[in-house]
Amino acid sequence: MAEKTYRVTGMGCEACVARVTKAVSARDGVSRAAVDLIGETLTVVYDESRVDFAKLRDAVEDAGYGLEEI
Amino acid sequence: MAEKTYRVTGMGCEACVARVTKAVSARDGVSRAAVDLIGETLTVVYDESRVDFAKLRDAVEDAGYGLEEI
After folding, report:
1. Which CA distances in Å does B42 have to A14, A16, A61?
2. B11:A15 CB<8 A
3. Which of A52, A69, B40, B45 has the fewest CB atoms within 10 Å, i.e. is most exposed?
């Protein structure tokens, strides 16, 4: 398991936070996802053999937001 | 062309408005989409031979929101 923090772009409210959290949590290999609106961050605990940055970014982009490495 | 107004659920801010507007506008057959955050409405001008409520609802749901007939 790994824990990493990324920057999330495009969020404006708690509905956005809920949407990003749900999109990332739904991915196979993700055990925990925590999104901070003010800090614009996603902290995620995941299985490195099944998830990587590109997959997390896809999940976030599919929900209509952006994900960047910090 | 038809113009109809629907209820949009789950929006919390202008970033949500922009996301719903973009998702609906991108559908073939939609000429204009206007979203109101406070009223929770989507007003859409569309070609009835190419678009129906189910397609509009799919577009909105894919973006993470809900669409209901009023």
Report:
1. 21, 18, 23
2. yes
3. A69
